[in-house]
Amino acid sequence: MNAGPIVNPTPTTPPIPPPLDKGTLGIFYLVPSYHQEPAPNVGTIPGVTNDYMQGLLLRETWERLERTDGVLNFDWLDDSIDACEANEKLVGFQHEPGIQFPRLV
To answer: What does the pLDDT look like over 5-54, one tens digit per residue?
Structure first.
């Protein structure tokens, strides 16, 4: 019995799944920060440009935001939010309470 010529199938690559819908919560990157000096540059974190990463959770201490009594510095936070917005990422912010944490907050 002749089964005919042997045919080798053409290899195919598996399809890449589409990025997650921005309306759902998926994978979030926890930005290392607590007392890290210098503050991490969120724009260089691979998660910011990864289509499968839905957003970043920015974690910070009051000491970085108010290094001098009464003088607030939100530069790191502003830059981080700008980097996330430029890459269409959701942003969360977590503040670590501590001895320097003001009672009014």
So the answer is: 777 778 788 777 666 665 566 777 777 665 666 777 788 887 788 887 88
- Domain around 65: 36-96
Listed in sequence order, the residues at least 6 apart from 63 whose beta carbon sits closer than 8 Å to its beta carbon are: 35, 98, 100
The count of domains in the chain is 1
Give the H/E segment covering residue 48.
helix 46-49
- 55 CB-contact burial (10 Å; exposed 0-12 / middle 13-18 / buried 19+): buried
Residues written for the chain: 105
What CA–CA distance (Å, rounded) separates 98 from 20?
Answer: 36
Structure-token match 């089964």, residue found = 3
Asked whether the whole model's pTM tops 0.90, one would answer: no
